[in-house]
Amino acid sequence: MHPPDLVVVGRDPGPEGTGDPVRFAVELERAIKEQADYDAVVAAYRDAGLPQVWHVLSARTAERLAKAAQRAGFQWAPSPTRGVNVSTDGLFRMQGWRSGRVLSNTASWAPRLNFPASFPAALDAYVFPQKLDAWRGGTIVDPSAEPLWEPLPMYDAAA
């Protein structure tokens, strides 16, 4: 199976969610891959029972991931927060992501600059960790921040 870029612990989001801790595979998607690649990874995570969070850089990648999610049987739910797409069972999430700043000096590491006000992808955190947003040199988009960078279309839950 494709190893995730990061694993975070959140509460069980399943249809019969117990609230117990569960691992989420997190992918920071900078490249635009072939549709078959996304189909394979999304299905592999689903088959392994591993909830997945995708932070995407481009609208084209988002389109391919949305198609892969649909092919894997996921359906869109109403968005839990601005800028986040989530499946009805909570096991597939997609959020915008952009290249971040370089943490090059003491001032750049200031907590007020590096900790967003909300947990990435609207996850219900089991243990609310310090949320340094410099994953792989990028910045997780904070839905409460203005102006919000929204590269993704919001998918209609009724579709």
Describe how the helices and strands are arranged.
Elements (H helix, E strand, L loop, with lengths): L5 E6 L9 E9 L5 H13 L4 E5 L2 H13 L12 E3 L5 E8 L11 H4 L23 E3 L19
Parallel strand pairs: 2-3, 3-5
Antiparallel strand pairs: 1-2, 4-5, 5-6
Helix pairs in contact: 1-2
In short:
It contains 3 helices and 6 strands.
Write up this protein.
The structure is a single chain. With 159 residues, the protein is of the alpha/beta class. The chain has 3 helices and 6 strands, in the order E-E-H-E-H-E-E-H-E. It has helices spanning 35-47, 59-71, 111-114; strands at residues 6-11, 21-29, 52-56, 84-86, 92-99, 138-140. Strands 1, 2, 3, 4, 5 and 6 form a 6-stranded mixed beta sheet that branches. Helix 1 links the parallel strand 2 (21-29) and strand 3. Helix 1 crosses helix 2.
